[in-house]
UniProtKB/TrEMBL annotation:
Its EC number is 4.99.1.12. One of its GO terms (molecular function) is lyase activity. Keywords: Lyase, Nickel. This is Pyridinium-3,5-bisthiocarboxylic acid mononucleotide nickel insertion protein. Pfam families: Ni_insertion. It catalyses: Ni(II)-pyridinium-3,5-bisthiocarboxylate mononucleotide = pyridinium-3,5-bisthiocarboxylate mononucleotide + Ni(2+). It comes from Collinsella tanakaei. Residues 125-136 have a biased composition (Basic residues). Residues 108-124 have a biased composition (Basic and acidic residues). The gene is larC. One of its GO terms (biological process) is protein maturation.
């Protein structure tokens, strides 16, 4: 419960995010089950350790590839100027293929600890009661192959959806970068395994925390160039730029030479549907620190805060999402307008009302505003088209804060009356008799509505210590 706030002010990569989620208390048992069930589980192990970055303790998550491969370097170690040899070695085993091989997933596999003080806590091997396919030759996997691997894993449907979305975002970004269809984007065997593990791990761990929402700071990247299979490319790398553009992820710049944001890291932030930084006071319940593999002029760290809204004296208001739909009409009779609003309310709209506006030609017009639950949006749009003369409906998602409400029945000399009560943020209560009940009594008893309201309120107040 609560929310997740991902601090990407020093960059983000897949393994860094996984490490931070583990350190923040995510379910490691769920992670072990998911990774053990992958059809490629016999091709890797994971190593989880404690490291030191700039004097701060952090968690390190590493994918150790079997069958003679070296440990993968998530942070693309082959920086321009000193990484050419690494890149060359990484591709000695690459064979010719007509498709594109994603840069991030075909890079060097050397692992340098640099300023890391590793105290290895876990080294996980995966034992299975089922058979896993493994070819010892080096192959390339396309998006369909990767999705099949994800589909076979033991995880919740929501975690699977996050993982699938991340790979779709990643493949689309690489396709745009190289001007190819998505089905021609290929992930090198080694890089694909590494990225599958990172993405599945992050999806499972984030899902295990069951957050109400995910927030993230702007993604801070460095500058300069890196060398990959296709040559020298600029930082931020094209795939990261494409992900941030397509998914509207805010970014920022640090005066650091090197890549701080990897495509996998950006794809995961997008797949988690991270919102901008929270705009409300919050309490930090736990914090996880995830370390990167490279040494830059700033520490390579991601922080994940588990947060909840700060509590005041009174009860916490309920916050949920609603959708607001609008349309303008200038040619509908008043009777039809009233009928449309009532039809929407009968069919589940939370609110429906008309506002006077001026149309684009200066003519008086009316705007219909409808508030509804997001799952009712399609039904509301259909009704707005059917019940009004509009030819277009616009909508936007909104956050809504609702006070705690309750209803009780009070007995009066004029009959039973429902009383509605809300609890204010400062803990005070505010109540009022239900309008329909007062109106019914007023009509039945032949008493003016204001007089009936005064009498009912006075009797309820006299009968108990009330907030009327």
């Amino acid at each position: 419960m609560g929310s997740l706030y991902i601090d990407c002010s020093l960059g983000v990569s897949g393994d860094m995010l996984v490490a931070a989620l583990l350190d923040a208390g995510a379910d490691s048992a769920a992670l072990d089950r998911a990774l053990s069930s992958l059809s490629v589980a016999d091709e890797f192990e994971i190593a989880i350790s404690t490291v030191t970055k700039a004097g701060m303790r952090a968690c390190d998550f590493d994918v150790v590839l079997r069958h003679g491969h070296e440990t993968h370097d998530h942070d693309m170690a082959y920086l321009h100027g000193h990484g050419e040899d690494r890149c060359g070695r990484a591709h000695e085993h690459a064979h010719e293929d007509d498709g594109h091989h994603c840069c991030e997933h075909a890079h060097a596999h050397g692992h340098a600890h640099g300023d890391h003080d590793h105290q290895h806590e876990h080294h996980h091997e995966h034992a299975h009661g089922h058979e896993h396919r493994h070819e010892h030759h080096h192959e390339y996997r396309n998006l369909h192959d990767v999705m099949a691997i994800i589909d076979s894993a033991q995880m919740t449907q929501s975690a699977r959806a996050i993982a699938a979305r991340a790979f779709e975002i990643l493949a689309q970004a690489e396709a745009w970068a190289h001007g190819l269809p998505v089905d021609q984007v290929h992930f090198h065997e080694v890089g694909a395994i590494d990225s599958i593990v990172d993405i599945v791990s992050a999806a499972v761990l984030a899902d295990s925390l069951d957050p109400d929402a995910v927030y993230a700071t702007p993604l801070a990247d460095g500058h300069g160039t890196i060398r990959c299979q296709h040559g020298v490319i600029p930082v931020p790398v094209p795939a990261v730029v494409n992900i941030c553009r397509a998914c509207e992820l805010p970014t920022s710049h640090l005066d650091v030479e090197g890549e701080l944001v990897t495509p996998t890291g950006a794809a995961l932030i997008a797949a988690l549907d991270a919102r901008r930084a929270p705009d409300f006071p919050y309490t930090i319940l736990a914090t996880g620190m995830g370390a990167g593999k490279r040494g830059y002029s700033v520490p390579s760290l991601v922080r994940v805060h588990r947060i909840e809204r700060a509590r005041g004296r009174g009860p916490q208001p309920h916050v949920d999402g609603v959708i607001k739909l609008e349309c303008d009409v200038d040619d509908q009779p008043a009777e039809g307008m009233a009928h449309a609003a009532q039809a929407l309310l009968r069919d589940g709209a939370l609110e429906a009302h008309w506002l006077p506006v001026f149309g684009k030609k200066g003519r008086p017009a009316y705007q219909l505003q409808v508030i509804a639950a997001p799952q009712d949006a399609e039904r509301m749009r259909r009704l707005m088209f059917l019940e009004t003369t509009t030819i277009g409906v616009r909508w936007t998602m909104m956050d809504r804060e609702v006070l705690e409400r309750s209803e009780r029945v009070e007995q009066t000399s004029l009959g039973p009356v429902r009383v509605k009560t809300v609890v204010l943020p400062d803990g005070e209560h505010r109540s009022k008799p239900e309008y329909e009940d007062v109106a019914r009594i007023s009509s039945r008893e032949g008493i003016a509505f204001p007089d009936a309201l005064v009498q009912i309120t006075a009797e309820i107040r006299a009968g108990r210590n009330t907030d009327l």
